[in-house]
Amino acid sequence: MDSPAVELNPFEDDSDAPFGTPDYRYFTPAQDETAKQMLRRLGEVTPELPGLFVERATTGDIVLRAGTLRAPMERSKAPVDALMLALNELLAKSQVASRYVAVAWKGSGRAFAFTTMDESLDLLNGGNLEAKDLGELMELTAW
Prior knowledge:
The chain contains four helices and six strands; from the N terminus they run βαβββαββαα. The protein is an alpha+beta fold.
């Protein structure tokens, strides 16, 4: 997706969406998008965590911050994966019930849906997520 605009459903039509419902909030990283650009768009689509930014902690670690909350970003991960892991951890610390989960879909690129645990379990059982098992899903979502 080349547009920096945030859309509730960024897919061309409902049949192209990972699941046939308009009820999910989606985030689709654009090809060649920098981590800073992704973070700006994630901030727009995630009003539950105002003021998202990345900083270097006094320990030298890179962390994602929202107000006083911090979550480490794993350097060994791709930028979008590191952002999503840290973002989900901040959502957990903020006691937000939903998380971003990577969806398995036939389109190009990647897509993340903002869902609850119950919805994610249904999606996992239906084979609609990148996560292959419950353990992997729980690790990625910080539930």
